Amino acid sequence: QSRIFEFQADKFSVDLGMSSRLQSGLTKIHLENLGAMSSDPWYSAYHYSHPPLVERLAAMMELDKKAKK
Fold first, then answer.
1. Backbone angles phi, psi at 35, to 5 degrees
2. Closest CA to 10 of 52, 69, 42
3. What's the whole-model pTM score?
4. Where are the alpha helices (DSSP H) in the chain?
5. Among 11, 32, 41, 62, which residue's Cβ finds the most Cβ atoms within 10 Å?
6. How far apart are CA 60 and CA 1, in angstroms?
7. Given this model, what pLDDT does residue 57 score?
8. Looking at the predicted structure, is the pLDDT value of residue 1 above 90?
9. For residues 11 and 17, what is the distance between their CA atoms, to the nearest angstrom?
10. How far apart are CA 16 and CA 62, in angstroms?
11. How far from each other are the two terminal CA atoms of the chain, in whole angstroms?
């Protein structure tokens, strides 16, 4: 459930035109926490409460592309 909320929040940042700032902030936090940049999709779906950073960044970039059209 929280994965859905994370993607909804990311979409909200895109709608506000703030996705690049959110992407930058998420990346900084992730690097400071020494998190894995990519993880196995099945493992993360079962064990992680939040989507991996790579998935969130990719989703935001895709939404940015759609918003510019």
1. -75, 155
2. 52
3. 0.83
4. 2-15, 19-32, 41-47, 53-68
5. 11
6. 19
7. 95
8. no
9. 10
10. 15
11. 30
